[in-house]
Amino acid sequence: MKILVIGGGAREHALVWKLAQSPKVKEIYAAPGNAGTAPIAQNLNVAATDIAALLKTAREKQIDLTVVGPEAPLAEGIVDRFRDAGLPIFGPSQKAAAIESSKVFAKDLMQKHGIPCARSASFDSYSEAKAYLEKQAPPVVVKADGLAAGKGVVVATSISEALVALDDFMAKKTLGRAGDRIIIEECLAGREMSAFAFTDGETVVPMLPACDYKRVFDGDRGPNTGGMGSYSPPPFYTAALAEKVTGTIMVPTVRAMAKEGRPYKGVLYGGLMLTADGPKVLEFNARFGDPETQVVLPLLKTDLADIMLAVVDNRLGQLKVEWRDGACVGVVLASGGYPGSYKTGLPVNGLDSLDEDILVFHAGTKLDAAGQVVTNGGRVLTVVATGQTIAEAREKVYNNIPRLHFEGCHYRRDVGLVLNRA
Ligand code: AMP
Ligand code: GLY
Questions:
Q1: What is the pLDDT of residue 422?
Q2: Nearest atom of ligand 2 to the alpha carbon of 230
Q3: Which residues contact residue 182 at a Cβ distance below 8 angstroms, ignoring those fewer than 6 apart?
Q4: Ligand (nearest to CA of 186)
Q5: 2-91 matches 125-180 in fold
Q6: For a substitution probing ligand 1, which of 211, 282, 285 has the most ligand atoms within 8 Å of its CB?
Q7: How far is the centre of ligand 2, averaged over its atoms, from the C-alpha of 128 (Å)?
């Protein structure tokens, strides 16, 4: 088989790494990929959002399966375009990807079908939203409807802070059209976790869940990022909780999407809050998580190409998906200044000095003219280790990280340490 993986982050490097282990897979292409995918895939100079060029490439290279990493091409309908062209592709259609690309759609779906989530109201009028907000008691959450790369949610501790967010999204249009509609919702308290399932629209196969660390500094301080680290599985994820998440959230959501005429295929990602009233949905994503994928795929025993083909061919029910025992911890090494502005083109050293069982998934890296790995983005590497326990995996990761170096490198020291964040 020839596979095309779309995207260029550490999530996509992990997908390429896992797919490369399949005896079925002969060649892998990455569009655009990074310095980490270069030795195991052929990197193509095609942007993840250039659907026409991706389609052309898939035809020319006679790709047997395309795998979509990021949300933007899904929201733009890449899956529909490939399917219309008769090209097998793993991911939800544009109508199904609305579960991530429109928070108002996702919220309406959950309310209509009884899927547990925060109480909320949605607005397309600034003055009505403002009048409603002025009657609320803090804390309150303001969310932009559309894709906003993590910048569309403000958990406000005062109404004045919430009004500023509302003004930014709806009046100043800081997120463009993504802020045309907004949601104002109740602030939930509890532990946060990410649940994932493979689904062909009918069968729902839960994956191992994970937790990610969104704030840039230890102790969950500082601004939000794309994710600074992750671990799997959460020790508090008991069999009873797993049953509840699958039975009250993941399966009902896939059923609801089918009923709405938007059959959902691919990976369904539920960002959850474990509240005193049980697990509730904060948001859905229509794809694998980043950095969660980097700690979930190393624990997957089953051939990922087999799973993806079964999803595409609607026969996931015939496949047994198995996971390894143990745990996995991943720590993101970021560029100095990230999530603000940062330099690129800085040499990354020490990649060949790591213990054999350490995995390094590249994100913002590229090879320079001399073949040296240099930085090329905010999140540069995810360093990953597995172990019998999270503590063991954590120790391995943090023993190895000091051997890696690039100017300005920073990372969190508490990934996998503080497990009971509330
Ligand atoms: P989202 O993009 O919807 O996952 O929101 C980003 C982050 O905002 C989440 O990871 C939560 O930490 C927080 N958040 C979102 N919705 C709520 C809510 N209703 N209550 C409390 N925190 C929330
Ligand atoms: N880990 C957050 C995301 O993938 O959206």
A1: 43
A2: 1
A3: 122, 123, 129, 142, 143, 144, 145, 166, 169, 170
A4: 1
A5: no
A6: 282
A7: 31
What does the pLDDT look like over 66-89, one tens digit per residue? Answer: 999 999 999 999 999 999 999 999
- Ligand 2 atom closest to residue 287's alpha carbon, by position in its atom list: 4
Which atom of ligand 1 is found nearest the CA of 187? 20
**Ligand in closest contact with the CA of 232:** 2
Q: Report the topology of domain 327-403.
A: Glycinamide Ribonucleotide Synthetase; Chain A, domain 4 (3.90.600)
CA dihedral 269, 38, 330, 118 (to 10 degrees): -20
Paired strand residues for 121: 184
How many whole angstroms from 188 Cα to the centroid of ligand 1? 8
Number of the ligand closest to the Cα of 152: 1
Positions of the chain with pLDDT lower than 50, given as ranges: 422
Q: How far apart are CA 378 and CA 61, in angstroms?
A: 31
- CATH homologous superfamily, domain 125-180: ATP-grasp fold, A domain (3.30.1490.20)
Q: How many helices (H) and strands (E) does the chain have?
A: 13, 22
Ligand 2 center from residue 112 Cα (angstroms): 25
Do the Cβ atoms of 331 and 383 come closer than 8 Å?
yes
Q: Which amino acid is at 4?
A: L
Say yes or no: domain 2-91 is CATH 3.40.50.20. yes
In whole angstroms, give the CA distance from residue 6 to residue 67. 6
What separation in Å is there between the alpha carbon of 270 and the centre of ligand 2? 10
pLDDT, position 151: 86
How far, CA to CA in Å, does 175 sit from each of 100, 124, 184, 333?
Answer: 16, 15, 16, 27
User: Which ligand does the CA of 285 lie closest to?
Assistant: 2
Pocket residues for ligand 2 (CB within 6 Å)?
A: 212, 227, 285, 289-290, 292
pTM for the complete prediction? 0.96
Q: What is the CA radius of gyration of the chain?
A: 21
